[in-house]
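Entry type: protein chain
Record version: 2
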Amino acid sequence: MTDTPLKIPESIKRDWERACEWQRLCAAKQCAYEGLAASKARPDSRGALCCPGYRSVLHIEEQHYVLRTCLCARQRAWSERRRVWLRSERGKRSREGTVPAGWRRDVGQEG
């Protein structure tokens, strides 16, 4: 094993710079998931100047730079709120009887 510093590959360096910008925007509360209601679908953050809801970590594994990306805390919190909201909406629809009967019709009532 040598003590020479590893050179970061250009592709990793570019992605790390993007991740640092996302972290800066997220820290400034310019996150696409900041205050997003559970009833809203995922935000369309393409082209927007905001964090898309991810955070990254750069480290070295077996003499190679590795960039790992996962959901940020705001996106995880929104995902949990969304899951709970969707479950409650599904429950409301089934209790209200808005689910169509489909094939369960009396003979002679077809179309």
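Comment: Helices lie at 10-27, 73-96.
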